[in-house]
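Workshop exercise sheet. Pairs work together: one partner reads the sequence aloud, the other fills in the structure field after running the prediction. Swap roles for the next sheet.
Pair: D.N. / O.F.
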Amino acid sequence: MIKDGKLFRVVEPNCFDTATRIQEMDKACVQVQCISTVPVMFNYAAKSEHTEEIARFVNDDLFSICKSHPDRLIPLGTLPMNDIRRAVEEVRRCVALGMKGFEIGSHVGEKSLDHRDFWPLYKECEKLGALLFVHPWDMDSWSGRLNKHWMPWLVGMPSETAQAICSALMGNLLVEFPKLKLCFAHGGGAYPSIAGRVNHGYKVRPDLCATECKVAPELLQKNLWVDSLAHNPQAIGLVADTFGKDKIVLGTDYPFPLGELEVGKVVEEYSALTEQDKNDMLWGNAIKMLDLDENTLAK
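Structure field:
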């Protein structure tokens, strides 16, 4: 994969070959997997008609692949977020096909998730029960002294996710759209670590933090979903305290290096969880989040 004339990533068969992916799922004892595109394919900076064309192509391909293995693979589509009218139309088209959710970036250009341009999309997703899975991306601003030691991925991505969560909480999204399902990647990024700071700031500087939402973040954050990719069993405890054990779904970031190499290990090794907690995080919560029929999935 080439980006701006430079090698971005060597793409292995498990990124595009369904048979290889199923084999690796079997090896890892993963019965069902949600699949989505890589964020570099969002193409939000392109002309909106081109972004829409790419989104439709990707979504049709994802849907076709998952339809061939309906008990193993669940598609999460992509959207032309640089044109919300087109994004809403694509949501309607894909939900009508049977798609349960969509992956979006943590921001679109200079627009954070609380930008009013996105509200028609949130209204439609809430109406249709479609999940929006938020993945960090576009860390181009992390340049110069921060562009060493893979910091855009190690530090930039968690920061991006934390910023997106703060935008959702303090931008009044969850008050205006109380049934909107938002799931944030990588255990909510840095947000669990700064949640206390954010809530304290909301209380002591309401003139800056409470300008759009009159409900404190700590009262809204448990309405969000996150995945379990925290890499550290102890971190799962903090994620659970922040969002609730019932709002954590299994996340692996497969098949990339920053993903969990032993699927579910971080959940299984956290001793403070009961067996029911672990089962919920490993599969039960995801079924609820996506409103799936458990009887149609591989056991």
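Discussion prompt: Residues 110 and 233 are 35 Å apart (CA to CA). What would you look at next?
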